[in-house]
Amino acid sequence: MYNSISFDASTVPNDFETVPAGTYRAMITSAQVKRTKAGNGAYLGLVFTLCNNDEYEGRKIYHMITFDHPNPDTVRIAKEHLKKLCVAIGSGNALIDDPEVFVGHTIAIKVIVKGNEDSDIGLKNSVQHYFPF
């Protein structure tokens, strides 16, 4: 039985801190289709794992592309993002019917920092563009 714990939090990286804005090499390590919270649409949830051989190696960037939504502008933007993502993985003219087709591809992503440190949400990373690597 344990009566105490010995743990140094400073030795564990905080994966939820933002990375600086910039272009990073990243592998798509997860791609799943999910329903929106409101239940009126669907999105492609992507996880990009940075692989730059620098201090951000292994950090994860979470990204959503909402392709089914009542707002036609949201759908139009999603289609543009999906096209750019397909080009980045070398499938620019392919018919994509399984999100797993994205997993395992290493591409370049342009990341920005959004939000406000003083808000409840704080700062977060957002993927703005995808490039072939």
Report on this model:
With about 130 residues, the protein is mainly beta. It has a single domain (about 20-130), classed as OB fold (Dihydrolipoamide Acetyltransferase, E2P) (Beta Barrel). Helix content is about 15%, strand content about 40%. The chain has one helix and five strands. Strands 3-2-1-4-5 form a five-stranded antiparallel sheet, covered by helices on one side. A hairpin with a 6-residue loop joins strand 1 (about 20-35) and strand 2. The longest helix has 17 residues, at about 70-90. The protein is globular and about 55 Å long. About 20% of the residues are buried. The mean pLDDT is about 90.
In brief, what are we looking at here?
The longest helix has 17 residues, at 72-88. With 133 residues, this protein is mainly β. A five-stranded antiparallel β-sheet has the order 3-2-1-4-5, covered by helices on one side.
Q: Notable features of this structure?
A:
5 strands; single chain; OB fold (Dihydrolipoamide Acetyltransferase, E2P); 133 residues
